[in-house]
């Protein structure tokens, strides 16, 4: 097991974004454009912000997304304003974020284990992968995993890879089959109306210069390496790391009569347990052992739980009763969440 420390996000309040994903009324003909009837009734997400949230300035270029669903697919459309539209990678499962890209992250079971990542550039090249667990918890990505039946399209309003062109934006449409996404979902099935999956989106944006009539990444004169990329996201993370599924947004799959989304008390309890997980891992790194009493970790404000800690020399489990008292919520040393019914 990985006993290294885990950075705690700089978040004052637990307020992930939420989105009501309405059922589609007809099929989607993918061409990368979002100005067609299929998307007309779907709301835009909030404009993306820096991955660190309010710690950093607002992005200079607007990014926003829409979502819909039906019995076969989860649909995502995204619009990325850009006057420098470029891409170079053409082979599937290349490391697409080495280009500017749009990224989709999906945790279908809410455990933070067994989640999906999809990246796409302006050429329409994709990288899809399965992560059994986050990198912080020792989980290597499964690059050979593909979203079977994936459909994508990209539209460029302007000209790709042509400096000086009157480029305005590029947009993406993605249709992901439930037949693939249900693999790691609760009960191995697609979502039912009213249920939520954890989802986030990221835009990677590199600074570029024009050299010999083409875009090249801007170099940092001190290091000689490309300047760090910007990371703009839908639901801010509080640190530069997308692989914290517990901070992603809540996407509610809705029918016309589905009640509005409200963050449950159990989700707030899970967040407090997650904060203790960060601190327990950091405690081990500093002390060489886990804290046997959760109270040792509960400094600061905002605690409403009375958790139980169970530890061995190399393992721990933290738990707290659910809101209704009929079950308990649990997290262990590798970050996995689960719920146990009480007898």
Automatic annotation (TrEMBL):
GO MF term set: carbohydrate binding; hydrolase activity, hydrolyzing O-glycosyl compounds
Gene3D superfamilies assigned: 2.60.40.1190
Any one of the GO BP annotations: carbohydrate catabolic process
InterPro entries listed in its UniProt record: Carb-bd_dom_fam9 (IPR010502)
Domain Carbohydrate-binding: 30-122
Entry coiled-coil feature ranges: none
Protein name per Swiss-Prot or TrEMBL: Carbohydrate-binding family 9-like protein
